[in-house]
Amino acid sequence: ISAFAIGMIVGARLMAVVTLAMPRRTTLVASLLVFVAGHVLAALASDYAVVLVARVVTALATATFWVVAAVVAVSMVAEHLRARALAVLLSGLTVATVLGVPLGTVVGQQLGWRATFWAVAGVGGLGGGGGLSPGARPEEELQGRTAACPAPSPTPWPKPRPAGRPPSPPT
Question: How far apart are alpha carbons 123 and 152 in whole angstroms?
Fold first, then answer.
C-alpha cells in the first residue's frame, strides 16, 4: 500500500507536467493500458521486488489517469457545472473504493492474491478497451466549442488570483 500511495503522491504532480502536451484521450487510454500491464505484471510476479515495481508503475498510471480525467471533466462542461462534473468523476472513485476494496479482499482470500491482480487488470482492460473503440468520440471533435463550453485551459490548474482579492461571486 505504501509504494502505491507514494507513487500516487509523486506521480500526480510529475505526470501532470510530463503529459501536458499530449492529447488527453491518448493520455487517458495509455494510462489505463499501463495500469492493466502493471496489474498483469504483479499477477505474474515471482518475487516481492517485481510486485513492488508493478505497484509503483500502476500508481503512476493511476495518478496520470486521475489528473487528466479531472481536467477533461471540468473542461467539457460550462463553467457553472464544473464542480458538478468533478464531483461525478470523483464519485466514481468513491464507489470503486467502497465496493472494490472489500471485493478485492474477498477475491484474494478465496482465490489467492494473484486473482485480485488479475481481476483488477480485467476491469481496467474493459475501461481501456472502451477508449479504443471505434465509436469513442475523438478528442478533435471536442475542439469546436461554444461559449457555454469553452476550450480547455492549456494548463491543468487554474490561474492564480491576485493576492488580497476575494473570489468573485458566481454569476
Answer: 29
The three-state secondary structure class of 32 is helix
Residue 55 belongs to what H/E stretch?
Answer: helix 48-75
Q: What is the rounded CA–CA span in Å between residue 151 and residue 137?
A: 16
Other beta carbons less than 10 A from residue 119's beta carbon: 18
Taking a C-beta distance cutoff of 8 angstroms, is the pair 38, 55 a contact? yes
Question: Residue 99 has what pLDDT?
Answer: 93
Is residue 85 within 8 A of residue 74, CB to CB? The reply is: yes
Angle at alpha carbon of residue 38, lines to 88 and 129, rounded to 5° = 55
Encode pLDDT of 108-160 as tens digits.
Answer: 999 999 999 999 999 988 876 666 555 555 444 444 433 344 455 555 555 55
Distance CA 129, CA 114 (A): 22
Give the residue-averaged pLDDT of 87-116: 93
CA 14/CA 37 separation, integer angstroms:
20
